[in-house]
Design brief:
The chain is of the alpha/beta class. Helices cover 36% and strands 18% of the residues.
Length: 502
């Protein structure tokens, strides 16, 4: 049983370096049992405007030089290290993250601030070889790194301390003032980190933390004329929407992913099965880097599945404040019920449930689910990260894939492969084995608009709908070439990702 609890208190927000009560409060509830773990003052658009103006004034004052920024971040890292237990308890209480995992996040926050302090001391510019051109003879060109001024930041619920540090540390190191909106479910950790930064010597006005609804506070930060750069972590839909609304601003996005685990017959499948237990279900799978699909060679599929299912039986699901808990609740009852519904739909459609998928601990948590089998329809993703993993046997994989010789691409069946036997808009190196090289950019864009190029919207949707499999070997950042083994196996086990087993 849990031996400690977070005392529920009221938390003022930080506006232009001052702790403020706005008269409007938002309750922060435990995802585990719904108890109130605290209240936070809520801001609005007018308060965001005040904070942005103060941040710009602080930036223009120029009284926070590089060495002082590094010293503040170093001191903040020390203070976080001294308060790891308290910060971990806060994370566990408001995010439902198991205490052992929350302690690891607090430790990573120390590293994030330390690395930011290091970078603050390393910020340099560069020189331009002007004499490379005859008109530049006798001249020297100098480049300087300059801050944007005011950075608007929006952080998610799943790492309520360290991802806030990801926003604040680098921005302060580079000399920017910050206006931050923390996630509505987990604002207390952000406010405590802000208090630590002030204690470490952060000047007044350089940081504001404004909890509140995204429709008002978030939009105001994004659209405010004084925020020169934005940093957002969250769903792809919201992130790309932000970028499209403010194309004139620098926008950094850290969005969701679809992370596969690929296990070949000659790989260390035992270690893979052991690691998958943690990396698929840590924080109930609510992580952008959690395992969401598993691709296993049929020669080791049965042994891998048996070992993985046995590992899942060792996971302890329940109270996040219990030091022995491995998997806590999802962030809200609505998310829990949605994932449970997906499990039930998969079973009703013909999937076999191998482990978990039931409500445990008086219905507060969902046991880690693992299933296998073919279900009618395509893979359905929940958008955000969800703790559901499934296996599909080799026959289903063969129906959905056509495996090609080395140096060629893999396509899902049913017409998503472009006509002509090759990808429009790409060409090969002379040796026919190197990465795909793009043709002229205008030709690529034209084919993307027509939906004929693999990067085009229609084919991207087709791959998402039909569960396209891509082998990891030889993938490059640019061309996306897929290189298979010389004698590729035609039978795979395909695991459904963070959505419904299909």
């Amino acid at each position: 049983m849990a031996t400690q609890a977070l005392q529920a208190v009221d938390h003022k927000l930080l506006a232009a370096g001052e702790w403020v009560e706005t008269g409007e409060w938002g309750e922060v509830k435990s995802p585990y049992d719904g108890t109130v773990v605290g209240r936070v003052a809520l801001g609005d658009a007018a308060l965001v405007d005040r904070c942005a103006i103060a941040a710009r004034a602080a930036f223009e004052s120029g009284d926070f030089p590089q060495h002082e920024r590094a010293a503040v971040l170093d001191r903040a890292a020390e203070l976080v290290g001294e308060q790891i237990d308290e910060l971990a308890l806060t994370i566990a209480a408001e995010a439902g993250k198991p205490l052992k995992t929350a302690e690891a996040e607090a430790g990573r926050c120390v590293d994030t601030l330390t690395f930011s302090a290091v970078e603050a001391r390393k910020l340099t510019g560069g020189t331009v070889p002007m004499e490379a051109s005859s008109p530049g003879a006798g001249k020297v060109g100098v480049m300087l790194c300059v801050p944007y001024g005011v950075v608007g930041a929006i952080s998610p619920f799943n790492f309520p301390l360290n991802l806030v540090a990801h926003k604040l540390g680098p921005a302060i190191a580079a000399g920017n003032a910050v206006v931050l909106k923390p996630a509505g479910q987990t604002p207390i950790s952000a406010l405590k980190l802000a208090a630590i930064l002030l204690e470490a010597g952060l000047p007044q006005g350089w940081l504001s933390v404004v909890p509140g609804p995204g429709s008002e506070v978030g939009n105001s930060i994004v659209e405010h004329e004084l925020t020169g750069a934005l940093s957002f972590t969250g769903s792809a839909k919201v992130g790309w929407g932000i970028r499209s609304r403010v194309p004139h601003k620098k926008v950094n996005l850290e969005l969701g992913s679809n992370a596969p685990l690929i296990v070949h017959s000659d790989g260390d499948w035992e270690t893979a099965a052991d690691k998958a237990k943690l990396h698929a279900f840590s924080h109930a799978g609510q992580s952008c880097i959690s395992i969401q699909r598993i691709l296993v060679h049929e020669d080791v599929a049965d042994a891998f599945t048996e070992r993985l299912v046995a590992n899942l039986g060792e996971l302890r699901v329940g109270d996040p404040l219990d030091p022995e808990t491995d998997v806590g609740p999802l962030i809200s009852p609505g998310d829990r019920d949605r994932v449970k519904q997906w499990v039930d739909e998969a079973v009703a459609g013909g999937a076999e449930l191998l482990a978990g998928g039931t409500l445990v601990d008086e219905g507060r948590c969902l046991a880690a689910a693992r299933g296998q089998g073919l279900v009618r329809g395509g893979l359905r993703s929940g958008g955000d990260d969800r703790p559901l993993r499934g296996l599909r046997r080799g026959a289903a994989a063969r129906q959905r894939l056509q495996v090609r010789p080395p140096g060629r691409r893999l396509y899902p069946r049913h017409g998503s492969r472009p006509r002509g036997g090759r990808d429009p808009g790409v060409r090969r190196r002379p040796d026919q084995r190197g990465p795909h090289l793009p043709r002229r950019p205008d030709a690529l864009r034209r084919r993307q608009r027509l939906g004929q190029h693999p990067g085009g919207p229609r084919l991207r949707r087709a791959r998402a709908d039909r569960g396209a499999l891509r082998h990891p070997a030889g993938i490059t950042r640019g061309g996306g070439r897929l290189s298979l083994p010389r004698k590729p196996s035609r039978s795979w086990i395909v695991a459904g990702g963070s959505g419904r087993v299909s």
